[in-house]
Design brief:
It contains 3 helices and 3 strands, in the order E-H-H-E-E-H. By secondary structure, it is α+β, with helices and mostly antiparallel strands. InterPro entries: DNA-bd_dom_put_sf, HTH_17.
């Protein structure tokens, strides 16, 4: 299955969480993020939806 990657702003809107919480979720491996460069990170929409559904929380 193909995954869609979204910006930080879109990820925060989708989750309804703070930037710090999003960072913690990425660090714990619950949400997949791809760091393109020092300032650009994209977040996996599939992993965000799985987290919201409680699959890997």
């Amino acid at each position: 299955m193909n995954d869609t990657f979204i910006t930080k702003k879109e990820a925060l809107k989708e989750l309804g969480l703070s930037s710090r919480t999003l960072y913690s979720l990425v660090q714990s491996g619950k949400i997949v993020a791809n760091k393109i460069n020092a300032r650009l990170i994209y977040y996996s929409l599939n992993s965000i939806r799985a987290f919201k559904a409680g699959i890997n929380s």
